[in-house]
Design goal:
It comes from Symbiodinium necroappetens. With 405 residues, the chain is an all-alpha fold. It is built from 15 helices and no strands. The protein folds into two domains: 2-192, no CATH class; 249-404, no CATH class.
Length: 405
Amino acid sequence: IAAAKRILSWELKQSMQMEVNAVSRSVSELSEAVVRLEAVSSAPANPATSSAVSRLGEELQKRVWQKLESKIHEIVDGALSRASTRAGKTASHPLEAYGFEDFDLNGDGIVTRDIFEEARKKIMAGHLEEPRKATATCEPPTLSRPSEPKATKSLLRYLYSRAAPRLKTLENHAATRFVVGRLLSRGLQRALMLGPAPDALAEAKRDIAAIRASRLRIEDATRKAEELVHAASTRVQAAARGRLVRREKDLVKKSTITLQRALRRLKLRRQGKKVDFSAVVAAATEQRKEWAMEFERVALDGTLEEHAFIEALLRSSPTKVSQVQAEKLWAGFLEHSEVPGPMAISTFWAICEAVEQGDELAADFADIPVEEYASYGCQATPQSEEQMRAAQRIQAAQRGRQARR
């Protein structure tokens, strides 16, 4: 019962009483406005128009009371479902657990004590009369009398339905006509459409601001991405240029080292002869043109790899070097080079010159004994042509791949 009292008090006070007060204030204001308008306007109203407006007002009242009755049912159902028992009382009839204070919690006079006691006595006596049926003009449809006294929910609904007609405050037909006239003159639909216009305008402004902010964020992100791409491309280009420069420097350094070593070997072997560096350079630059042509024919990017070196050397000196000797010369070149890699034309000329001068100088380039170098020469005759053709095929395939790139 305590929970039911709190629920009924809150829901009645917040839903019904506020609506009744608002309607009462509106009717009072409209009544005053009607009095002022009737004082100003002395022309009699058209009977046909008055009857039509009256019918509209009655229909409006009917719909209002129908909605109020559904709210009353919801209030009663919710209260009784959460307060099914009442502590401290045992009664033979369900209504004995309820008093007038359970229904009139806020003293608004909707249910008077006399009406409650009269209805309660009739219910307890078991001969409750049938409630009056609602008319089409002013009263909402009421509930039928419950078939059994124990149907507490139906009894409470009946009591509230009997008390609901006392809420009617729209008795003033002049005020009703005034309300309907105002709605018809201005247009309810236009008012509903124009009502949310400021809200829609504000929402549109907020959407536009959000779109602009999103566009700024996208532009900022795009600019940052372009800066990152530009910085990355700059680093890649710088790394590529650095590798190219280092490669060229390595080739020059490798060729210089090879010439210096050849010069030192010549000096040691020709101790009694007068040899200077200018003579070595002159001899290297005056080599036969066939060596340069063979080098250019098989070179890639101005340098020689192992297969290209062997093929060019076998073509430059076919009678003085074998396949195995060419391989040993390449191994010696790699062993004595500080930076391993392809061979430049100056180093190739020096090796060709050593091969032409004899096995002794060629063995110095291969960094092996002269007898071992000479023993590899006899193995060149049976297989030299086949190996040369294989080297040519490999070099041709490599040149094809380089051209396709």
